[in-house]
Structures are given as C-alpha cells and as structure tokens.
Design brief:
The complex is a heterodimer of chains A (331) and B (378). Helices cover 69% and strands 2% of the residues of chain A. Chain A is built from 12 helices and 4 strands; from the N terminus they run H-H-H-H-H-E-E-E-H-H-H-H-E-H-H-H. In chain A, a hairpin with a 3-residue loop joins strand 2 (164-165) and strand 3 (169-170). Chain A is globular, with a radius of gyration of 21 Å. Chain B contains 18 helices and no strands. Classes of the chains: A mainly alpha (331), B mainly alpha (378). At the A-B interface, helix 5, helix 10 and helix 12 of A face helix 6, helix 13 and helix 15 of B.
C-alpha cells in the first residue's frame, strides 16, 4: 500500500456485498429452522430466535471452559487449541439447541397438535419469553463480548498485487477475513447436506409426506410425532450452528438478540416462500444484503423499518414468497 | 344455566357490580393508606392506568376476541393516538388545541390508520396477518424513534397539558380516575350493545367459520376491516388518555412489541371475547407489574440485603418467565381464559356437549325475541 485513499464507490459496494452475504448466510441458517417447522406444523415458532440466542451463550460458556475468554489467553493459545475450542463450541451449541427444541416440542407443542392455530402460536410466544428470561440470568442484561478467536488478517491481501485486486479495487478497502470464510464454510455445506437429506433420505421423504398431509402420512405408517420432533431437532441444530458463527463474527451476544434476528430470519423465510428450503436461503441472502446496503446508504437505524416494510409488501403482493408455489389453500 | 334470566338489560351482573364498585371507590378510599401504603403507591393512582389499558384491551378484544384475527401490533395504534394528542396539544407546536378535540382526533386518526393498513392485508390468512401487524408495529416504532423533528425522538413529546387548566389534575387522583373510568364505562356500554347487534353477531359468525359466514351472505372483507378500524380507534382513544395522564408521549419504546404482546396476554388470561374477563386480565397483569412486583421486591430486599445485583434474587428478574409460563399453561389447560365467554368456550371444547348452556342471545336472538320465546314456551 503506497498511500491511503478513501474507498471508491465500487470498493464500498463490494465491501458491503461481502458483509451482506455474510449476514445473509446467518439469517438463512436461522430461517431454515423457521421454514421447516412452519412447513410441517404450520406454526410460526416465535421461540426459534431465542433458541439461537441461548446457543450463543452455550458456545460462550464452552469457550470459557477452554480458558479463552481473555484476549491475552487467546493470543497465547496455539491454533490447534483455538480450533479445538471452536469445534467443541459448535458441537455443544448444536446438540444443546437441537435437544432443547425437541424437548420444547414434546412438552409444549405436541399436546396442542389438534388445538386451534392460535394456541401453539401463543404458546410459542410464551416459550420465547421463558428462553429470554433464561438468557437474562445466564448473561445479564448487558451485551457480553465473545472472545475474538479468529485472525483478522485480510485474506485478499494474499492474492493482491500492489495492493490491488483484479487491478480495480484496493484490498485495503475490501476485507475478507477468516471469519467470512468460516460463515460460508459452515453455511454452504450445511444447506447442501440438508437439501440432500430432505430429497433423498427415507426420513426426508417422511418429512415431506407429513408436511403435505399429516393424516395421510400417519395412515401410511409414518410416526408423525417422531418426524415432527426430528424437524424441530434439525431446525434447532441449524440455529445452534448459526449462534456460534454469530458469536465468532459479530463479537457480542445479548439476551434479546434472538428477538430481532429471529424476526429478520422469519422475514427471510416468508420472502423466499415459507416451507421451501431454497426459498429460506434466497430470502436470507436478500435480507442480509438489504440490511448491509441499508446500513451503508440509508442509516442503520432505519433497518428495522426497511426490513419489516419489505415483509409487509411481500405479504400483500405475493404472500407465497419468491419461490413459493401458488397452491390454493384447502378450504 | 339460567343464561336468559341474567342477561336481561337491567339485571345485575358481575360487570355492573364491578363498575359500580369502581365508581364508589374514591368515596371510600380504604386502600389508599393501608395495604398499598407500604409501597407508597396509592391504588387510586394505579387504577386510571388499569382503565386506560382496559380500553386498549377492549379494542384488541374486538379484533382478536370477537372477530378471531390475531393482532400483534396494537401498540402502533396506541402510539398513533398518543402522538396525535401530543402534536395537537404540546407547546412546541402552535396548535394548542383543547383536550376533547385531541381525544377525537387521536381516535379518528388511529381508526383511519387501521383502515389504511387493514385494507390491503385483511385477505391474508390468520398467521400471516399476525406477522403483518407485528411488522407494522415495528415500522411505526422505528419511524417514531427516527423522525426526531416531528416526534422528538426518544425524548417523547412533552409536556402535554392536563385536560383543563385547573390545578386539581395534579393535586388529586380523582379527576383522572373519573375521567378514565367514565370513558371506559361509555366504551363498555357501547361494546355491550355492539356485541348483540347485527355487526357483532356477524363478527362472531366470521370467527367461527369464515366460509359458512360468507355463504350466508356476509362480506368477510368489510367485516374484518370494520373490526380492525374499531379496534384501532379504541387503541387510539386509549393512547390519547395515556399520553394526557403521563403528560408526555413517553419514548417510542413504550409502544413496542412488548406492549402489544402484554395486551394479548391480558386478553388470554382474562378470557377472549368477554369484557369482564378482559378487565380482570388487565387488572391482574398491571397489578402484577405495578403493585405485586414492588411489594415482593421490597420483601426480598429486606430478607437478603446483599443480592449483589444478582437478577434471579429479585422478583423483577422473573417477570418474563412468569408471563411465558402463564401463557403456556393457559393455552394448555384453559385456553378460554379465567372468565370465558360462553361462546368461545364452546368453540374451544367442541367435544363437551352441554346443551342447556347455549345462550340464545349469543346465538343471534335479541332480548325481545328471547322474551317472546320464553312467553311462547309458557
């Protein structure tokens, strides 16, 4: 780098696109949990965002077991120790969230399976409150900082010549670090694996059958309760993975972070077409990009209005979402 | 169940008794210095808040209880009333209009806002509608927070003058008490008649089976819009009273999702569709927040002086969990609420056939018809 210059419009745009796609992957992971549960039991799982929040605290606690909460300890630890801690945090958070989500399903939603639709929805709000309270006791009312475990080195610098990439933008203004790499490295395989699972495995086929018609699925010998429990478990696992990534990249966790991130992710699920897995991913990426561009060009404080405005517009003009089928509702 | 006998217009029922008691309370303010003296909160100061939130809950009850549309953004309309009142009366603006005009303007503008947001969205299915209302509530909150020039941002508009220039509004609890209670009783009477009117019965029909109601010639779109606008208008009315009593619109955080969901909790706890139940629900939850929690917190403080800021040692720290558990348990074991509306109870427990409990008035006959029916059977 010979001289420091202010970023050009293009460089800014590329940087915010990277940022947006990173957020987008996070929203997509959470949105998959919403869309799977909605697809199978038609429940807007308000507690899903709070499950994600608890996953953040679990991973924070696990990292604490490794003694990596202080910046000095992180600097002293070798890459192997840090990698191990991250891996264990992943396993812990994923297991915790999927287990908890299944338990909630069995304890709260299963008895209400035949109740009017309002009942499970209101119960989900109740579960959300309880989880939020648990997060409040766990982490307090202030944001807790997550240790900075991954290096902040800009990976693009390795490919750059004279501080320029492709001869058009300077790497000093466009950053792509190990954190961004981790987000894509976890999200993309997870989504591919999930898609293959739903499409080709026997359990995936059963899930699709239950989503289409629970009664018929039951008559065909499918244990619907078990399949619904499995759906909650997978959704919870994705939320748990998203929580670790969130902690590592965003750097703080707070007891009420589930509410807003959950709603953004739900917007993503609706935007893509609720009940459709590729829709959740597409919607997540769009919402991520919108929030990144919104922060850059309009102001972060308007993000809430922007994203919920999109939600309202989508629901008014295309309630089935971008990829949703136009199947008519059964009367 | 002698439903017919107790529902004749001038018979005493629980609601009438309750309102008569509340009207008489300031004459014998026995609780002012005894029970509630310990927390330095007088019941007479707390009750107007209960009345205001009851008006808000009645508005929500029109949408959720009568018509069966899940509405998660009632706070947006509450905010609309409050801010319209603020803009029309506060000194920073040159309007300086008197209280009654602000009251009407706040109510009407909230109802219009309800029409505006309701018209394009009411054809959506139940849970999608819940999301639209939730999203709209967030949009309104964010907008109020960010439009500093108009709404004074997070400071809120203040000071809103009391309804008249007399100093008595600040000195005594009774003026606000009677103002809010009076408006509440008017609203309750109006709703009581509305429930039995053609419109009220149409709403119930819509809630029970939209397809059947449509086939019988009802227009679901118009009916839903009417319910939505009326609910929004009542919320706006409550908003004007709230801002006037606080003498400030408070910060936009007072109109967030938590407010909306708090009102939904009141309805579900008390009894969807039943006015007495709604009043009880509001009383319990506002009482929980404003009376029970301070008392228990004080007691815990006395018992364990060194909590060291640990949240789980204060009752306030458990607030969310208590609310959440209450919602789950109510949904599981008594979804019709503590004082259920007969009709809602039947809808929620379709298996239990109790033939004599069906109330002819709710079924659609008006009181005169019922009396005729009784006369004929004799």
């Amino acid at each position: 780098m010979l001289f420091a210059s202010s970023p050009s419009l293009l460089e800014n745009f590329v940087q915010f696109t990277v940022l947006g796609l990173t957020y987008g992957c996070l929203f997509a992971l959470i949105a998959l949990g919403y869309t799977m549960v909605y697809g199978i039991v038609e429940l807007i799982n308000f507690a899903h965002g709070d499950l994600f929040m608890l996953g953040g605290f679990v991973s924070l606690t696990v990292v604490g077991f490794f003694g990596l909460t202080e910046a000095g300890a992180v600097a002293a630890a070798g890459p192997l120790a840090i990698g191990g801690a991250i891996l264990v945090a992943f396993v812990g958070s994923v297991l915790f969230c999927s287990g908890l989500n299944t338990v909630i399903d069995i304890a709260v939603y299963r008895p209400l399976r035949n109740a009017p639709k309002l009942a499970p929805l209101v119960s989900a709000i109740g579960v959300s409150f309880i989880l939020m309270n648990a997060g409040l006791f766990w982490g307090g009312s202030q944001p807790v900082s997550f240790p900075d475990l991954l290096p902040n080195e800009n990976l693009l610098e390795r490919f750059a010549q004279n501080g320029q990439l492709f001869g058009t933008f300077g790497v000093e203004h466009v950053r792509f670090t190990a954190k961004n790499l981790l987000v894509f490295g976890v999200t993309v395989p997870a989504m591919l694996g999930l898609t293959l699972f739903i499409k080709y495995s026997k359990l995936g086929k059963a899930m699709r059958a239950v989503a289409q018609n629970p009664t018929a699925a039951k008559l065909m010998g499918i244990d619907t309760d078990r399949i619904i429990g499995l759906t909650f478990a997978i959704g919870g696992a994705l939320a748990g993975a998203a929580a670790v990534i969130y902690g590592l990249t965003i750097g703080t966790v707070k007891y009420d972070m589930g509410y807003q991130n959950g709603l953004y992710a739900f917007t993503a699920a609706v935007l893509g077409g609720i009940g459709r897995l590729p829709g959740a991913v597409l919607g997540g990426l769009i919402i991520g990009l919108v929030s990144a561009y919104g922060s850059a060009y309009i102001g972060e404080r308007w993000n809430g209005a922007l994203i919920f405005g999109i939600l309202i517009m989508i629901l008014i003009f295309r309630p089935t979402g971008l990829l949703g089928s136009t199947a008519r509702e059964k009367v | 169940m002698p439903a017919v006998a107790t529902k004749t217009p001038f018979a005493l029922n629980w609601e009438t008794v309750l309102f008569l008691g509340l009207l008489l309370y300031p004459v014998f303010p026995i609780f002012e210095s005894t029970i509630f003296g310990a927390t330095k909160r007088s019941l007479g100061d707390q009750l107007p808040t209960v009345f205001i939130f009851t008006i808000l809950a009645y508005g929500l009850n029109v949408v959720i209880g009568y018509t069966g549309l899940l509405h998660l953004g009632i706070a947006a309309f509450f905010a609309c009333g409050s801010y319209v009142a603020g803009i029309l009366t506060v000194g920073a603006y040159s309007f300086g209009l008197p209280f009654p005009i602000a009251l009407i303007a706040g109510t009407v503008s909230a109802a219009l806002l309800g029409l505006l947001i309701g018209a394009p969205t009411l054809r959506l299915r139940g849970d999608y509608l819940a999301l639209v209302t939730l999203g709209f509530g967030e949009v309104v909150k964010v907008t109020l927070k960010n439009l500093d020039g108009i709404t004074a941002g997070s400071r809120g508009l203040s000071p809103i003058p009391p309804p008249t220039d007399h100093a008595i509004w600040a000195e005594d609890f009774r003026p606000y008490y009677y103002l809010t209670l009076g408006i509440l009783i008017v609203v309750a009477l109006g709703l009581r008649n509305l429930e039995r009117s053609r419109l009220g019965r149409a709403w119930v029909a819509l809630r029970e089976d939209e397809l059947a109601a449509n086939c019988m010639g009802l227009n679901p779109g118009k009916l839903k819009l009417a319910a939505f606008a009326l609910g929004a208008g009542l919320a706006g009315l409550a908003g004007v009273l709230y801002a006037t009593r606080l003498s400030s619109t408070a910060d936009p955080g007072a109109y967030d999702f938590n407010r909306s969901i708090f009102m939904v909790c009141c309805l579900i706890l008390g009894g969807l569709g039943n006015r007495t139940g709604v009043l009880l629900g509001v009383f319990l939850l506002v009482g929980f927040d404003n009376i029970l929690t301070p008392i228990l917190d004080g007691a815990i403080q006395k018992q364990f002086p060194n909590t060291g800021g640990r949240l789980y040692l204060s009752f306030t720290g458990w607030r969310l969990a208590v609310f959440g558990l209450a919602l789950i348990l109510m949904m599981r074991f008594r979804p019709e609420g503590m004082i259920p509306s007969t009709r809602v109870k039947h809808e929620l427990h379709p298996d239990e056939v109790v033939s004599d409990a069906i109330d002819p008035i709710v079924l659609g006959a008006n009181t005169r018809e019922v009396q005729q029916m009784k006369g004929e059977s004799r």
